[in-house]
Specification:
Distance between the termini: 31 Å
Structural class: alpha+beta
Number of helices: 5
CATH superfamily: Glutaredoxin
Number of domains: 1
Length: 216
Amino acid sequence: MQATTVPGKLTLHPAWILFAAVALAIPMGALVMRAPVRGELPVLASLPAFKLVDQENKPFSRDDMLGKVWVADFVFTSCADACPRLQNKMRHLQDRLLPPEQGGTIALLSISVDPERDTPEKLRTYAEAYGARKALWWYLTGPQKDVERTVVQGFHTAMAKLPVPGRDPHIEAFDIMHGERFVLVDAQGRIRGFYDADDPDAIIRDARLLTPGGRG
C-alpha cells in the first residue's frame, strides 16, 4: 500500500465490498496455507473469461493462460512499499523456473491495480527494471472496470482506491489497497492456492505438482 497524490476527481471503487462477497465463495480454510504434505491441491475457483493487454500492448485473455501453470501477484508501478518487495520475490521465483525452450511450463503474471496510470509502456519499463523475461513473466493492465472484475471476481483478491484524509484539499489523494498474496493457477485456469510471498518454497513446490512430471 502506498499513498499517492494526483490531480482530478477522486473515484472510490467498491472493490472491498465486492471482494468480501466473492471471498465467501471460497471456504475460509482454503485461504490459509495447508500442511506441507498433501496428495492433491484443492480446486478453489475457476477464473472467468477476461480480456486485458500486456506490457507490449498485446491482447491477453484467460485463454492465453491455458496450458501453463501461473503464479500471479498484484502491484502498481508508483508503489514504494509492498510492491517492490513482491516484485523482488517474483524475480527470485523466475530465477528458479525452467524457460519454455527447456520444457518449462510455469509462468509469472503481475496485474496492475492502478490501470488508469499504468500504461503498457510504463509496465514494460517496470518489467525491465525487475529483469522480467518475456517468455516467463507477463504484466497486465486495461480499463479500470475490467481490471477490477478480473482481480476481484476472478483472482479473489482485493483492490480499491480509498481517500486519504487530512491532505491538501486542492489535491485529490488516495491510497491504493490491494491483496499481497500470490495466487497459484493451474493449466486449466483454476485457482489452486493462495500463498504468503515470504514462502517461495511452498509456491514452487505446489506449482511443480501441477506440471507434467513435476518440472518447472
